[in-house]
What does this fold into?
Amino acid sequence: MKMKRVGAVIAVAGVAVAMAGCSNGPSSGGSTDGDTITVDMWAGSEDDTAALEAQIAVAKKQNPDLKIELRTAPWGDFFTKLTTNMASGNMACVTGMNSGMLASYTSGFVKLTDADLATAGLAKSDFADGSLEILSNKGDMYGLPFDVSTMLTYYNEDQLAAAGADIPEIGWTFDDFEATAKKATTGGKYGFGIGMGDFQWQALPIAQSGVQPVSKDGTLQLTDPAFLKAAEWYSGLVTDQKVAAPVASASDGGWGENQFTSENAAMAVDGTWNAVGYLNNDAGFTAGLAPLPTGDNGNLSLILGSGFGIAESCENKEAALKVLGSLLSKDSQDYIASSGRSYPARAESQPLYFESIDEAHRDQVKAVFEAAFQDVQGQYVSDNWAKVGTFVQPSLVSVYNGQDSMSDILDSAQQQFGK
It folds into this structure.
């Protein structure tokens, strides 16, 4: 995935690919005539538009009897329009979806079966281990992923070396993390950039506790003792250990990532989708990456990503499935992998991603990705998960500034949204 502006609030995990330019008009139910299938996806830049159109071209070549129309909108507008279109039964036949947003839109999508995958020319075995969980909810599969991502630790090797701190590596522990962060907190610089985005702040508490803030059945469990303890430890990196700077404002959604790229912090947690951007950073420092550290309960990481589903309201499901299959075909997945834009969900296409990486970084990226994706778990979300994030994220400023406690904020969120 091509790096977006470092510091943007990643409410998607990247995560997801931010794919194309501006809206071509309101999304429709996917047909101007019986042979037209509309594909809706969120959008970000002209370069991303070209990438999406290249994948649509693959679908058109593989389905010459169909008319396929691409419609896009910026991330926020996309979901605003999707809410309206779902309520009116007017969703595009093939609609983009992100793992963190799915719970709010399941009623608009078809539950995919093995027979549906066969119609699309796909099989579950085509996809990387764990990736089919990305667009599944409570045991049902509502879409198929086009990319996969997880969270990593990024580090400034120059800054760590100057401080005499150990370099993070595969298999490092939370004790190692603390030692490195403490040693690198020197000379007005901090060892770690504290996270504000959902995935950025939750990644280390999840890894340390081995517990997600939502159970597999969709029950909110922000006050689970293990997760709560790890979350309090995380906020304590600012308030107790003082190895991270407090956040200036709730509008600083990418605080930790920006602290890292501006060389004010030696480490930060962010998604695999930004790996290339960090390694080739504009500041010119030597950057590296490692999996999340391992604690007493392992180092649980989430597999994140985005993909496409079929709208319940689609009048030509069979044609839509064929388009879906083409968008996730080897040709399409090979394109996004070889361009370095995204780490594809299709297993056989993944090696091409590493070939796209600069030779100086290729071996490290490959080793770290393979280690980080070994024991991943699909993200569990509650029905009102988006509201939880909207409540917690701005409250983190007061937590990091010592005005509120993490336990009070999470307890309040649990009481409000846990029913």
